[in-house]
Amino acid sequence: MNLSRQIAAATGALIMLAAPVALGTASAASAAPPGLQRGITHAENPRVPQGAVWTEAYFPSADHSGVELHADVLRPEHLPAHARTPVILAVGPYFSHAGQTGPQGFPQTGPSNRFEDFTSGTDLFARGYSYVMVDLRGFGGSTGCLDWVGPGEQADVKAAIQWVASRPWSTGKVGMYGKSYDAVTGLVGNNLRLGALKAIVAQEPVWNMYNYLFSNGVPRPNVTGTPNAYNGIATMAQLPDDSEHYRANAAYEQSHPECLADNLTNNNNPDLDSRYWRARNLAAQAKGTNTPLFITQGFIENNTKPEDVQEYLANHRGTERGWMGQWEHVRGNETNQGQLLQGRAGFFDEVMRLYDRYLKGIQPAVHDPAFALEDNTGRWRAQPAWPIWSSTTTARLQDGRYVDTGGPSALAAPAGQQWDMEHATDPLPPTARSLAPAPAGGYVTWSTPVRQRLRITATPRISLRAGASGNVMVRLWDVAPDGTAVMFDENVALIERAGRVAFDLKATDWTLEAGHQLGVQIGTIGSGSWLDTPSGNTIRVTQARLNLALQNPRSDVPAQGDRSPFLDTYLRQYTQTLTGSREGTFRLSLR
Q1: Which of 45, 206, 365, 590 is most buried by a 10 A CB count?
Q2: 370 falls within a domain
Q3: What is the CATH number of the domain that holds 443?
Q4: Per-residue pLDDT tens digits for 82-98
């Protein structure tokens, strides 16, 4: 049976539990020599990483709601119990003992293996760091209702940072680490402006939670699938050898079924300006923050897309590092058959140089570029910031009209799609019609052929006047002289009433070769990436303008890195051959 040792804090505000001991290990744990760590080692439970000692703890969230948070604590095995170390913290929904997004079939309880690649790949414990995983409210061993990165979950992040910083075995210096949802909690940590938090690594996060479920009033196919997926994670069956305390907390939703219902209804709100979504706009909340930040972001990422990344970085005033390029939803170190999926080597080395500098005060002996960037040519470059542009331009687009009929692929979500943030992807384009820039579903304005290589960078923005209510989609195409065209950016908006409409496309980093044209498609939504309700109206578009930032590739400083493999996959999926006239009406040029 599991054994838990409960120690009440002097104030009664915190409760600390020693680790549940796996079958047959109680005597080994209790017989530990004086001064060494009490808890479970890898020798006693193979789920514990080598070189670590595992204990568990419970503490209250910071919002005085009565929510109790659970933490798995991994300390260096070679250090005495009183040794003070800096702490790497991960906070999220994926640290349940039973599995990350579903049961993983573990034969016994133990700490999550979600970032075991990180702890082993960095020799984290041998380097003298502790590592702590905290379950957000409603997940794993924590109580409370799910809150989709709202005020409640933000209070959980605050409590977790303050708790690990205040432990007697902590130096008080905390770094955060994560990918996807637990990268989002790192962005939250920065926004909280807590002095104990010294550095953040956030891989492929969502920068504004609204954008994961909606685009400018238009729902995405996962608008109900994602809340349902997290409800499933929150109600995952736990392991029988977990402690009674852990299992009781994990069963919280059984006595609070409103948690699951509210998670569905609260997130089904298309109003970007509502109080609910303003509280979850992390990019806006980052204004004036300064925690050192290391991000990764795929520009053609089909899950957590690069929407509002530019706003977040512009609002953040502290040290910024980043890898940005042409990949899917993958970690900086992730490989497939030995090939790095982000294309660049040395991710863990750069991460640890960041942590060593800001948590230990060790100045790095190696100079890393602030930003390492891969554009659509597969070449890598170094920049002191992102974005950087040589000039800006406003393209005056032609007037036109289209019928808001939508498309068959936009009317239903794919059956069986797994919609949690770790797995969700946009449906692939099912037919040529869903991509064809004209005449299906709209009209296109063409640039004249560019006279020299130039890069479209940052976040394009479209504004137009619509003559009727309905929906609008804007797509950008890179068109070669032979008619080969790649769709490289898109976004949509609901037109609530006739009049002015303006919205951002996704952030991009796309180089046009000399002789290529930019095509700007305006029309109805014909994509499985959204669940629009077509109005059937004929919508006349006038006064359309596209704002672009342009960069001169001649100034690029080459950086280490190979072509990320997903780039060729994307090109196969989003390339068409066009025929017909492409007379240019606006010019793109560098100044």
Answers
A1: 206
A2: no
A3: 2.60.40.4070
A4: 999 999 999 999 999 99
What span, in angstroms and rounded, lies between the C-alpha atoms of 328 and 322?
16
Measured from the Cβ of residue 345, the count of other Cβ atoms closer than 10 Å reads 14
CA 565, CA 115: separation in Å to the nearest integer?
A: 23
Quote the number of domains for the chain: 2
Q: From CA 331, how far away is CA 320, in angstroms rounded?
A: 18
387, two tokens = 């974005």
Question: Which residues, listed in sequence order, are joined to residue 41 by a DSSP beta bridge?
Answer: 53
- CB-CB neighbours of 348 under 10 Å: 17
Average confidence (pLDDT) over 303-331? 98
List beta partners, residue 203. 179, 296
DSSP state letters, 520-532: EEEE----TT---
Residue ending a domain, choose from 285, 319, 339: 285
By C-alpha distance, which of 155, 150, 195 is closest to 60? 155
Rounded-to-5 percentages of helix, strand, coil across the chain: 20, 30, 50
Q: What's the CATH code of the domain at 249? A: 3.40.50
DSSP class of residue 568 equals H
Q: In 251-326, where does DSSP find H-type helix? A: 252-255, 258-267, 275-278, 282-285, 309-315
**Largest Cα–Cα separation, the chain:** 82
Half-sphere exposure in the Cβ direction for 120 (13 Å, CA): 10
Retrieve residue 181's tokens. Answer: 């949802």
Query: Phi/psi at 291 (nearest 5 deg)?
Result: -65, 130
Angle CA 187–188–194, to nearest 5:
105
Tell me how far apart the alpha carbons of residues 534 and 403 are, in angstroms, rounded to a whole number: 9
| Separation of alpha carbons 303 and 225, rounded Å | 14
Type and span of the H or E element at 571: helix 566-573
| SS3 assignment, position 320 | strand
- Burial of 354 per CB tally in 10 Å (0-12, 13-18, 19+): buried
CB contact at 8 A, 123 and 80: no
Nearest to 137, CA basis, from 239, 249, 238: 249
Relative to beta strand 484-495, strand 575-577 is antiparallel
Do 60 and 162 contact (CB within 8 A), yes or no?
no
Quick one: 279 and 148 in the same domain? Answer: yes
pLDDT above 50 (res 30): no
CA distance 59 to 124: 25
Element (H or E) spanning 477, and its range?
Answer: strand 470-479
> How large a percentage of the chain has pLDDT more than 70?
90
- Residue 86 contacts residue 360 (beta carbons within 8 Å): yes
State which of 260, 285, 310 marks the end of a domain: 285
Domain with 455, as residue range(s), is 391-586
Per-residue confidence band for 12, with pLDDT thresholds at 50, 70 and 90 = very low
- Residue 278 located in a structural domain: yes
- In the Cβ-directed half-sphere of 70, how many Cα atoms lie within 13 Å? 31
Residues 403 and 269 in one domain: no
- Rounded to a whole number of angstroms, the CA Rg of the chain reads 25
pLDDT at 440: 64
Using DSSP, state whether 31 is helix, strand or coil.
Answer: coil
